[in-house]
Amino acid sequence: MEITVMKSKLHCVSVTQAELDYIGSITIDEDLMDAANLIENEQVHILNKNNGERFITYVITGQRGSGTICLNGPAALRVNLNDVLIVISYASMEFEAAKKFRPWVVFPDTATNKLK
User: What confidence score (pLDDT) does residue 102 get?
Assistant: First the structure.
C-alpha cells in the first residue's frame, strides 16, 4: 500500500512579488528550494496564513540569494505583498518506508526569506 506524506515544507515565507500577467506558478529563491529539497516544476500546495487561502501550483526557480517568493498568474490574486505563506510538497511511498521518512522542513527568517 502506498500513502502520501509531506516531503518538503517552507514554513512562513513572505510574499515579495505578485505578477498577474504570467502563465502561473510560484517563483522561489533557489537557496530555499535547495534547503527544502524542492525542484523546478514540482507541485506545491500554498497555504496563506493571512487570509486562509489554500491552492496548488508548481515551482519556478528564482534567483539564488534573492529571498524571492513571487506568486504568478491567477495565484497572484490570492495573496498580498508580505502575506506569510506555508509551501508544502508531498510524495507517495510505501507505507513502511513512510514510517521512517523524515521530510525537509525549513524555517527561514520571515522578514527576509533567508535561511537562518
Answer: 98
Q: Do residues 52 and 3 touch, judged by C-beta distance below 8 A?
A: no
**CA 85/CA 11 separation, integer angstroms:** 7
8, 14, 25, 89: the catalytic one is: 25
For residue 45, give the C-alpha cell: 500546495
Please write the tens of the pLDDT for every residue from 64-95: 999 999 999 999 999 999 999 999 999 999 99
**CA–CA gap between residue 2 and residue 24 (Å, rounded):** 30
Domains of the chain, by residue range, sit at: 2-90
**Residues 44, 21: Cα–Cα separation, whole Å:** 20
Active-site residue, 25 included: yes
- Give me the catalytic one of 58, 66, 89, 90: 58
What is the fold, at CATH topology level, of the domain defined by 2-90? Barwin-like endoglucanases (2.40.40)
23: confidence class by pLDDT, cuts 50, 70, 90: confident
| Alpha carbons 38 and 33: distance in angstroms, whole number | 5
Q: 75, 55 in Cβ contact below 8 A? A: yes
